[in-house]
Structures are given as C-alpha cells and as structure tokens.
Specification:
CATH superfamily of the largest domain: SPOUT methyltransferase, trefoil knot domain
Number of helices: 7
Number of strands: 7
Helix content: 40-55%
Radius of gyration: 22 Å
Strand order of the largest sheet: 3-2-5
Shape: elongated
Distance between the termini: 55 Å
CATH class of the largest domain: Alpha Beta
Bound molecules: 4-(1H-imidazol-2-yl)pyridine
C-alpha cells in the first residue's frame, strides 16, 4: 500500500512556511548523527514527512524535494518512530527542555563515548565507586574520565576514534591499550 501524492501535497501545503526545512524519514537517507541533530536544532521550522508500509508516490517526493534521513539500516512499518527519534534528539537543544546546567552531550560532542558514571551509595554489593572520584581533585578526575572515555570508545566503537583529536599523551595511552 502506497500513500497517494495529492494527499501528501495537501498536507504539506497546510503546514509549510518560507523557512521550513523538510525532512523525509527514509531508509534511503543518510544516517542521523549528533552533528546532524545539532544542525537541525538551528532550523526555525522543521517539517517531517513519513511513509508507511510501501511508502509515498515518488512524484510528490520529487516535488517537495525533502532531505532524506535514516535512523539506521533496518526497515520499520513506517517513518513515524524515526520521526519521534529525530524530534527527541533535536528537542534536547531547544531552550527549556533540559534543566539549566545539564550537560547537553558529554557523549559524541567530543567524538568519544561517555565515561562511566557513579552516584550514591559509595559501596554497592561490595563494589566501590572508583577512589579518584571521591578525591575532589578535579584536574585528575577530568584526566581519568577522558581516559575512560577513550578506553570505552576503543573497546566498543573503535571506528569512532578515527575522527577524534587526542593529545600526544592520550595517543600514548591509546597505544598502551592495544598491547
Ligand atoms: C525510516 C527506517 C528511517 C529507518 C519504513 C519506513 C525508516 C522507515 N530510518 N522504514 N521508513
């Protein structure tokens, strides 16, 4: 089953504006990334177009000429959930959505995966919070976190390290993980 072009065209015209950026959630699009999310967050008006089942008649897609974005290489029943994911990721950048002072993106803003996080209690099932985090020595803590983030990225998503700027000291640390 395919969505008819006139239906999509009328719907698009009922919401369009001079500044609108139109996105078609589609497995044929480029994969959504944090960089793309940040870019979209700067837009004044986003219109999200979703197919369902077989998709949308190509003529209206050609006429609207939306940017196609995928959320991953798998097929769903429709683009509605991908649209929700895009909304969720972009809305984190909208003023008032996150609490003031909350970190927007520890993960990915520096290209690395997140370092491990701990809260109370200091001991859980015999497992202690790493000593250094209780030291109050912020410079050492920052260095430790950065190394843990490098470690996490190396063990879980090696390919991400290709686009990360590491200091000479961090490069040596990374080399030491490889042995
Ligand atoms: C859209 C899958 C974006 C992944 C079926 C219709 C899809 C999708 N990213 N599947 N649209």
């Amino acid at each position: 089953m395919l969505i008819k072009p006139d239906v999509v065209w009328d719907s698009f015209n009922s919401v369009k504006s001079d500044v609108a950026k139109v996105i078609y959630l589609s497995p044929q699009g480029k994969n959504l990334s944090q960089g793309k999310v940040e870019e979209l967050a700067k837009e004044e008006h986003l219109i999200l177009l979703c197919g369902h089942y077989e998709g949308i008649d190509q003529r209206v897609i050609d006429k609207i000429n939306p940017e196609e974005i995928s959320i991953g290489d798998y097929i769903l029943t429709g683009g509605e959930l991908p649209a929700m994911i895009l909304i969720d990721s972009v809305s984190r950048y909208v003023d008032g959505v996150l609490k003031k002072g909350s970190k927007l993106d520890e993960s990915f803003s520096n290209g690395l995966l997140e370092y491990p996080q701990y809260t109370k209690p200091e001991e859980f099932e015999g497992m202690k919070v790493p000593e250094i985090l209780l030291s109050g020595h912020h410079k050492n803590i920052d260095k430790w976190r950065r190394r843990e983030a490098i470690k996490n990225t190396y063990y879980k998503r090696k390919e991400l390290l290709e686009n990360v700027n590491l200091s000479e000291e961090e490069k040596e640390f990374l080399e030491s993980l490889k042995n």
